[in-house]
Amino acid sequence: MIFLLGGIVFYFIAKFIKKQKEHEVELKLIKQEFEKQSLQSQIEIQEQTFNAISQEIHDNVGQMLSLAKVQMNIAEEQLKNSPSHLKDAKENITRALDDLRDIAKNLNTDRIEELDFVQILQTEVDRLNKIKKIECNFSVIGANRKMGNKHKLIAFRIIQESINNILKHANASKINITINFTKKELNATITDNGIGFNTSVKSNGLGLQNIIKRAILIGGNAIVKSEIDKGTSITINIPYEQ
Question: Of the N and C termini of the chain, which has fewer Cβ atoms inside 10 Å?
Answer without folding.
Answer: N
